[in-house]
């Protein structure tokens, strides 16, 4: 795959006219996909795809397009020649782009990790065996992902890694289910078995008569999977430089009024530890880490090329949305969560999140799947669906009691168009006076 992409880049270079430059970005995968229902394989398939995004530049005018390729250089080159002709015609009609910015310092890199995953058939056998007796519905995606960048200045970057993501739910009946996930670069049957055993314990609790609590404020434990949904909402437009300069970020009070989160909150874009490539589609090399929130205070923004050009700031990302988000852990052992929660709500998952008051970082949403009412450090009943409305300045601010030492490394399960390379590495959070509204 790398030789194909680099060979294609050399051919594109030859086809350029005087004064032209090109940027080429490749996204490809060799993936296995398996769907499960009732703990049986219902659909299995393989996907091999290559997508190329090509930007043809002359001065401050440029025109770009994306296309799918076969991987056969002689076959694909004819299509690329026609595409270049089309891009030239389009560019001729376009105005200059005042915010066009791409890397001009040539920094070439290679990040290649060979596929160490077992055959998918072995993985499937492990899943069916571990979930024996459970009504499991899930989706397994595994295989090698490729990313590449090339430009007419001679820069070449290559990323090649294999990983898996198994996202599933185990149902008791109708909508009563326990949701879980297991992702990584090394498959461990013992880890899968542990997660299945935890699901069995929670399903047993789901069989009890559910309870509904009155609206009000409660002590809660927000599990990593639930916290992931909160940060996913924030990732839309709260960490980028443009959202800060245009005052659209949910962290507005932090940058204008000096509001703080809890001192234990250190949030970063950890590009070195994530699963995304260290280069962007315009050729910039990402820093290993960007401290977004440092001990409760807002730190640095994510700066994409267009914002970098507009606001004269160094570029540190692609599209100003976190790809490798990491929240540092705390001092609370996970084994002591129920004891420290004492009486309150154990929240496993959240859904339907949205901002209720963006300027004050207020988020509303609903509990989902296996959330439990806890008394005296012991789960006593499943909780009927509740809506919450809470501000980050309380949930992760003055009402935060602690973060767990252990953290969960969670991959984005999105496969729309292609498998995602986004991830989050998060602890759980123990919070007091968490507001349920209905």
In short:
This protein is α+β, with helices and mostly antiparallel strands and 438 residues long. It has 10 helices and 20 strands.
Strand and helix map with partners:
Layout: H1 2-15, E1 21-37, E2 40-58, E3 61-69, H2 73-92, E4 109-112, H3 120-130, E5 135-151, E6 156-173, E7 176-184, H4 189-206, E8 216-222, H5 224-234, H6 241-245, H7 252-256, E9 267-270, E10 289-294, E11 297-298, H8 305-311, E12 324-327, H9 337-341, E13 344-347, E14 349-357, E15 362-368, E16 372-375, E17 378-382, E18 387-391, H10 392-398, E19 400-411, E20 423-436
Parallel strand pairs: 4-6, 8-13, 12-20
Antiparallel strand pairs: 1-2, 1-5, 2-3, 5-6, 6-7, 8-20, 9-10, 9-12, 10-11, 13-16, 14-15, 15-18, 16-17, 19-20
Helix pairs in contact: 1-2, 3-4
Number of helices: 10
Distance between the termini: 53 Å
Beta strands, count: 20
The biggest beta sheet is recorded as: 10 strands, mixed
The percent range for strand residues is 35-45%
| pLDDT averaged residue by residue | 96
Stretches where pLDDT is under 50 for at least 5 consecutive residues are none
Characterize the structure shown:
The chain has 438 residues and is of the alpha+beta class. It has two domains: 2-206, PmbA/TldD superfamily (PmbA/TldD fold), CATH 3.30.2290.10; 216-436, no CATH class. It has ten helices and 20 strands. The strands form three sheets. Strands 8, 9, 10, 11, 12, 13, 16, 17, 19 and 20 form a ten-stranded mixed sheet that branches. Strands 1, 2, 3, 4, 5, 6 and 7 form a seven-stranded mixed sheet that branches. Strands 14-15-18 form a three-stranded antiparallel sheet. Strand 14 (349-357) and strand 15 (362-368) form a beta hairpin. The longest helix has 20 residues, at 73-92.
